[in-house]
Every structure is written in C-alpha cells, then in structure tokens.
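note to self: dont lose this again. the chain is below, predicted strucutre after it. 336 aa total, dont forget to put it in the shared folder this time
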Amino acid sequence: MRFLKLLAGFLPLLLLGSCENNRLKVNISHIKDEITFVRFYEELFSLGSSPEFEDLRDLRSRHPGFADLFSFRILRTGSMVDTSGWLMMRQFLSDSTTHKIRQAVNKQFPSLARQEKDITSLFRHYRYHFPEKSLPEVFFTVSGFNESVFTAEGIVGISLDKYLGSECEFYSLLDLPQYKIRRMNPGMIPSDVAYTWGMTEFPISPGATTLLDHMIYEGKLMYFSEAMLPRTADTLRMGFSARQLKWCAVNEAHMWNYLVEKELLFSTRQMDIVRYINDGPTTNGFPLESPGRTGVWLGRQIIRLYMKRNPEVTLPQLMSNDHYLEILNSSAYAPQ
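---
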C-alpha cells in the first residue's frame, strides 16, 4: 500500500474543520450548573514541609474522597491518617524537587481562571447531553509527575505539573519522549479531562477483543470529547500537530485499505491493537510522517460518518452502543 507524501500547502487548513459536526454546537446558555473547583495543592502546601498528623487529618476530613484517591492511587503513600502515610506525605512535602515543582506550577498558572472557565463549559455541555448524570468535583493538584488527569466517582483530579509546557526543563530531565512532551501544555487540560471523563463514564465493553472494537470505542470517546468541547481545535482534541492532521486526511483511504488488505481489523493480537491505538512518535508500519494513534483517528472518522448517516441517534445512545461492528456497517465507511 503506497502512502502519499505530505506536500506543503497540499491541503488547505480549512479542510481540517470540514468534518466538524455542527449538531454538536448546541446552545448551553440556559444551563447554569456550576462546577466546584478545589485547589487541593494550595491547601496541601499551606501545611508546610513538615505538617503535623492532625493537619493531614483535617485536610482529609475536608476532602475525604479525593485525599484517599490522591494518597493511595497517585502518590501511593497510603492513608494520610495512619503513621506510615503521614510520614511519607511529610517526605513528599519536604523534598526539594517538590518545592521546585510547586514554583514551576505557580509560575505557569498564576491564575486558573481560563482552565476553570473551559472545564465549566465542558460540563455544561455534559449536562446538556446527559441531564440525569451527576457532575463531578474538580481538584487541581501536584502529583510529582505521576498522573495527568485521573478520576473516581464524582471526582476529577488534574495534576498541574503535567501541563507546564513543552519548554519545561523537568520534562527533559525525566527523559520523556518528545511526542509526550508536546502534549504537556496547559491547552491540553480540557481535552484530557473530556477524554478521561468519557472513558470513566463509558468504559469499553468486556467483549471488545479486536482492533476494530478498540478503534470504534476510541472513536466514540473522541466524538464524546467533540461534544463536550465543540469549539476546540482538533490539534488539541487529538493531540496531533496540524501537519499530522493533514497527513491523516491525505492518507485516510491508504490507512484504511492497508488495515483491510492486511486483515488487521479483526486481529485480536495485543501487539496489533497497541500499534494502532496507543500513543507514540509514529505508527509502526506507516511512514514516519504519520502520528501515533492513527487507529483512533480512523475510529473517529467512522463515528462522525455514523452519526451523520443516523441523525436520530443521540449522544447517550451512541455512548451506550457496544455493537462495534454494527456501528461500522451502519456508517458505510469506505474512504476513497
């Protein structure tokens, strides 16, 4: 299968938005729901570098759900209200690197007004499409570069130290690959929240075993993210550069035909699923100009076409539909 080289100016940028689904640009002006934001990292750091046991106990009593999620799953220090967890949290707070991270976060985020505005809009769109669903409480924190966005029932956690910008010296010192560093900027926060919340609320079916199943599922999550952030650029929703988006648009039919001809769509081999779904500097087997996660991009194209051809299908109906092959057939997806 011969892929096309991307030529400068070959595809106008305008084409990148040609698939934008206008049905997702809904009027949310009547939705007044407010999201509760907690600057957990400020409360935590205000305790000083050697907090007393009672200080951490009081902090946990104010935010029990998030405090346990943060200490057990993210920092893995154990409970704040036992001796071992208390001592490990003191070690985290007194570490010199933690203090440098805190300074970098304060410099990058002197105000969180923009992030709070974007996330509020995101969840107002969520309320529009899912009026019966509860809205989460959103916590900003510092995790020592552990997790970007993490969730639990009624909770969204955002580690600001994972969004310090591509020039952040910590990221190069951590030897992170460039394709990951490029996404670690403040503009990615709303998209990462939308994607992670969608994955939490609508987990993949246990019966999903093939590459196609994962492509369709990921496409649903990307469509969900579009619905939550309908005015956000594709570069932020997908985490692709404009050039990578162009390459995918030019080579859409070539990518799809390659997967068909190589009989990969119904492959259950984990290495095939990882190759086309997981992030990376490029897609192994495709030209070096390709981004990683091209299977996700193709899945999104399938879902966009499916929703266009089936205008009666609502977003809740789409997200609850785990008949992945049926979705493909109903989309009549056949890029030329």
